[in-house]
Design a protein that fits this description.
alpha+beta, 8 helices, 8 strands, globular
């Protein structure tokens, strides 16, 4: 991989936003190295915050993380970066959690509870988590939804979808042929309550639909999602590594698995 401007930008971003201890990244397999560091950083944060999670049931786990995701003691003090990255969240532990971080913590908590086949899932503009059950059903869990507040307290959203509602499921690989997860579409006659996920309605077939991408089990947050979120920061001028940063070019030049292509059109 050439020592390009994009490679240097990605290394600078990793050193600023991920706890890499300023490691000397090579350009060989650069994106995968940083991707792995990001996953490790999220797992480390999980160990630090798990004492705030009520492991009594799946619902109490979900609701505990929903409260963490919505909470913000430092709303006026911290950048939205603090909601996205463990390294910065540690500086302001009362910050809210952005959906990618909250759903990743949820996946790890559900697995600690003994659940298997749990994945973080990308939806256009959002991230949640799912569990595949042996019967073929899929349960969606979303700790980052504004729809489920009760008496001023955040609660998570969950809903079970039957096999008949799961369509077009297919495995997906990156440019190098490595398995990255699977795509599926949910189609339901009755729109689930307390969520904004199912706003698309197929008039001809009379069903609500939504497309999902489930990351492979070792991935909590896709690197392309992180780069896109950094590009969209309202206060990115505060970070030197984001000056002239172009997420699209970095993803393209360094052959990073691009989640956006899954939702084209």
């Amino acid at each position: 991989m050439p020592n390009t401007k994009e490679a240097k930008q990605l290394i600078a971003l990793a050193n600023e936003f991920i706890n890499t201890h300023k490691k000397a990244y090579s350009t060989e397999d650069l994106a995968m190295q940083i991707h792995k560091d990001l996953q490790a950083e999220v797992k480390s944060l999980y160990l630090e915050v798990k004492n705030k999670i009520d492991f009594t049931s799946e619902q109490t786990i979900l609701d505990s993380i929903a409260v963490m995701a919505a909470h913000s003691e430092h709303q006026t003090k911290t950048s939205s970066v603090g909601q996205m990255f463990p390294k910065h969240y540690r500086l302001y532990p009362g910050s809210a959690m952005e959906c990618t971080l909250a759903s990743s913590i949820l996946k790890l908590a559900l697995e600690e509870k003994g659940k298997v086949n749990v994945h973080t899932v990308l939806i256009k503009g959002h991230q949640a988590a799912i569990q595949e059950e042996g019967s073929g059903t899929i349960i969606i869990y979303d700790p980052s939804t504004r729809w489920t507040r009760k008496d001023g307290v955040a609660h998570g959203f969950s809903h079970r979808f039957e096999p008949s509602e799961i369509k077009h499921k297919k495995d997906l690989k990156d440019e190098q042929g490595k398995y990255r997860g699977f795509f599926f579409r949910l189609e339901t006659i009755q729109r689930p309550k307390n969520t904004g996920m199912f706003e698309s309605f197929d008039e001809k077939r009379q069903v609500y639909t939504r497309d999902f991408f489930a990351s492979e089990s070792d991935t909590l947050i896709e690197l392309s999602v992180v780069l896109e979120n950094l590009s969209d920061l309202s206060d990115k001028d505060s970070f030197s590594s984001l000056q002239d940063f172009d997420a699209k070019e970095v993803v393209k030049t360094l052959h990073i698995f691009d989640h956006k292509k899954l939702f084209a059109g």
